[in-house]
Amino acid sequence: MCLAIPGKVLSAEDLGFARTGRVDFGGTVRQVRLDFVPEAAVGDYVLVHVGFAISKIDEEEARRTYEALAEIGVLQEELPPEEDPADAAR
């Protein structure tokens, strides 16, 4: 199952061909494409689906959504630990 997970934008960068940012998902930080939400800025909350921020949401909605996802136990499935590059090379 793929869900949109709320996260907080920690940084944003325009690469010319794409807009990316680092997003914090309750302690897990991932690089995310921000192309679909050009108005998103550092400190904003976004919903992220398969590596793309698809909408901007307020902090309270992000908190409620994150808590609901944690309660039904899907966060581990949707946010597995990042793969260690050393493991991938083996």
Question: How many separate domains?
Answer: 1
Please give the CATH architecture.
Answer: Roll
Number of strands: 5
- Which regions have little confidence, pLDDT < 50, spanning 5+ residues? none
- Proportion of β residues? 35-45%
Shape label: globular
- Rg for CA atoms: 13 Å
Described by strand count, sense and barrel closure, the largest sheet is: 5 strands, antiparallel
Distance between the termini: 28 Å
| Overall pLDDT metric | 85
**Estimated helix fraction:** 10-25%
Strand pairing plus helix content: what structural class? Answer: alpha+beta
CATH class: Mainly Beta
- The oligomerization state is single chain
DSSP summary: helix tally: 3
* Main β-sheet, spatial strand arrangement: 3-2-1-4-5
CATH topology: SH3 type barrels
Order of helices and strands: EEEEEHHH
Any overview of this molecule?
- The protein contains three helices and five strands.
- By secondary structure, the protein is of the alpha+beta class.
- The protein has a five-stranded antiparallel sheet.
- The model has no long low-confidence stretch (mean pLDDT 85).
- The protein has one domain: SH3 type barrels (Roll), CATH 2.30.30.140.
- The longest helix has 13 residues, at 59-71.
